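Quick look at the format.
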Amino acid sequence: MSGRLDIPSIKLVVEALEQCHPSRKLVALQHIANHNGGRLDVPSVNGQYVPLISSIELFGVYAMAEDVEDLPKNWIKAATNILQADEPAIS
């Protein structure tokens, strides 16, 4: 990961994506990344460039997917794991 973890921003994005209609999650994630210093490696719109694996790094959370449509789900899963690990342990 190249970015520092930004826990408050990660929480906001997870909440926003969970409220988003499934057909709009990828577009929403791309928009958030494009406007917040995230890095995307996804197929081009014209279909000429198709990487084997799509990836995103946003607020220090990195996710990959063979199918670009799985990228939001994988990012949410990675972000959720980070948020759970950041919670204080209850004794």
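Next, a different chain entirely:
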Amino acid sequence: MMWCRLLAMAMTSGSVMACGNNGEPDTTATFDVVVENVGEAYDFTASGVFNTPVGAAAPAPIGPGEAYEFMFDAAPGTKLSFATMFVHSNDLFYAPGAEGIALFDGSGSPISGDVTSQLMLWDAGTEVDQEPGAGPDQAPRQSGPDTGAADADATVRIAADTFGNLPSVSDVIQVTITSTSATGFRARIENVSTATTLTTMGGAQLAAPLAPGVWVLHTDDAPLYTPGNMDSGDGLEALAEDGDPSGLAAALDARTGLTVPLSPGVWLVHGGEASLFTSDQPDAGLGLEALAEDGDPAMLATMLDGVMGVQGVGAFTTPDGASGPGVILPGGSYSFTITAAPGDRLSLATMFVQSNDLFYAPQPAGIALFGADGMASSGDVTAQLLLWDAGTEVNELPGVGLSQAPRQSGANTGTDENGNVRITSDGFTYPAVTDVIRVTITPRM
């Protein structure tokens, strides 16, 4: 046994030596493991277009008595912004202020009611204003889109009543938001103008149509425009001049999605008789629930230590470059080092934080650390990961649910599910595994 210990001391740090019960040396290898968050950090949680009047079969403007409606889910702290063209103008549009409309009150309850008082008529600053209802370069009368002269003041600003015939906001549009559940909402944009709402200097009387528009959920201000600044060129001009929301909708869509943090997690080096969990069986109560629901790996790491077949266990908790434990956002990573012998396998688990009890992990058998030839494995092993449901808490809409870690009042607050650990399949939409996480193993030479 003494010679084996001396030999082990002589090995490099990249390949250590362990001794079996008979004193013979067994080669082991040291691996560096990196868990990266390769997801996107999105600006907006949801966005879309409203273009088809209620009861209609195809997109169209809305006239007196007609309305657009759209539904959405939002978490506390979220605000709604939207924009729709004042059609009898060169580049005017209705929208809330740059801060948007808060969807929850100060106590965290969802709002319901008429929010028209929070709307204003804005000038996009992209085209010279002509008399509302009479200008030849306005959508109902122009020969084609984008035909007017450029505005000398190219900033987005409150519309000026230069010609003295702009109707008040509430004489044209009414917006009502209705709470449909703890996180669900319906928005209704109604045209309340009449056939005499707009009077031109020539004496013509007109209704005030509203055009298809865009909506977006956000937490930071100014998702559509910044007062006093030029239009950003993302499509507001086409919406405000021609009632075409498609360009702005596409720009918003590219910045819309679910930003997924990853939690501290557990790693396990094991043989075939040990695993983090058993598929299609209830959670064993060793700590997977705390990891999958609350991102806390401590109990699971402790309970697995010393279990038969476990060669090593630990937790990765501190992001690379950080001074203390925390989640990793897109661009962040965790790193840890393991030692294993041929036949050993690696398992790990980290919480999909925008969920009730979902986690990334390989199949219970784990990831082979050595090939059939005994050579240490190396490279990207993400293809072996799956998104699992711990079966301990009823799932809510990802990124919105009030019992999910970023929004819950405390640990373990959701509705018990009493289900089995299984591959996630709950009717909600989740990003592909490889769009969120990457795991790489590298043997030290």
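The chain is about 10% helix and 30% strand.

See the schema section for token definitions.
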